[in-house]
Amino acid sequence: MALQRLTLWGRGLKMCILLVRRQTINWESKWQNRWVSSESKSDYGKFRLTAGKIYGDRDREKGLQTTENSKFYAISSRFKSFSNKGRSLVIQYTVKHEQKIDCGGGYIKVFPFNLRQKNMSGESQYYIMFGPDICGSETKKVHVILNYKNKLNSMKKQIRCKVDGFTHLYTLILRPDQTYEVKIDNEQVESGSLEDDWDFLPPRTINDPTVNKPEDWDDVAEIDDPKDVKPEDWDEPEHILDNSAEKPEDWDDVKKGEWKLILFMDSFLNSTIDNPNYKGIWPHPQIENPSYSPDFNIYSYDNISVIGLDLWQVRSGTIFDNFLITDNEEYAEEFGDDTWGETKVKFNPNYCLELPEAECRQGKKIGMGEQIAVRVRPFSSFAVFGFSRSVRSCLVQSWRSEKDSL
């Protein structure tokens, strides 16, 4: 297998590029040399290298897959430390929940250099946690948790994650101008100010403690209709029985006593009208917060050194791939198009002319949606960026070193 590392310099940081020619190499053994499994628990779930059940190109789409149900997972890969001070930080990867995940994480974490990888756990300090988290019908969100002065801060906005069984590309961008952007499948889904959308700092202004709401300020939006009075013949017993209630099947007469029909209050309720004197919510005058002090380095981290998967899954089968850390937003988008984008095709019934009948039926069943890689013809040549062809990771770093051998 012919391999070559090229050291390129430009506007960005150092870029490690691994060119791969179309020859065979045992990637199955190589990835385990770069990824360290945690030993902080004895019963962590195991990862394996696979493209899964549905793929466009079997070799190009191999990634790390969770394999055991109802397990915690902890694995990480180290690279030379760098700081993103004065530069954008772009974190990107792909994740595929082909098992129709019911409850579990699909996020990644970025750690400082002092992480002891074999001791990594949910208690380990990290800089950034980013990616999808799904559990039941209520939790389907993208986490963006940032460490600021050793305190973890969750994003105040809600971003819905993808919940299908296809591969999706997740991208987080932190910029020196204190803005951020989140993209899914190379399309922006959220953006804004780091200071506004996280509670890193005290508010810029606070209520003026010397000013109180005027006594005649009416902030009640609705009042009882004075014309709606209780009829003289209104029968209003103190309590009435709820005849629709039924005795619960698990009712224990010995412990709880004899079950009886429920009593509830029955009272006359006035209708309401808009309050003609309503002035709205009183706007409390603001003053500058003496506790507020701007920080123009919220976006930056020193000694970024480890990327890891630290998560729990009820139903296993998630595949992680195409890890990327860089300072170049355009490069990240191109890298996403060249990896995830090349294996994302619309379903084409003509593929059935080339596939076995069973495989064609499977493709139709899964691929009638907008995106599914049923079959992608092999490319004549291709480049793989980073540590391996299987678990691709181009780490664009702010350090200079001699050209070491792969």
From TrEMBL:
Designated name of the protein: Calreticulin 3
Q: Which cell locations does it reside in?
A: Endoplasmic reticulum
One GO MF term attached to the UniProt entry? protein folding chaperone
Instruction: Tell me the protein family, please.
Output: Belongs to the calreticulin family.
Got any disulfides in this one, which pairs? 103-135
Protein keywords: Chaperone, Disulfide bond, Endoplasmic reticulum
Q: Which gene encodes it?
A: CALR3
Query: Could you name the domain of life of the organism this protein comes from?
Result: Eukaryota
Q: Taking the first listed entry, what is the main subcellular location of this protein, grouped into a coarse class?
A: endoplasmic reticulum
Provide one Gene Ontology cellular component: cytosol
Q: Where is this region: Disordered?
A: 205-249
The answer to whether UniProt assigns keyword Disulfide bond to this entry is yes
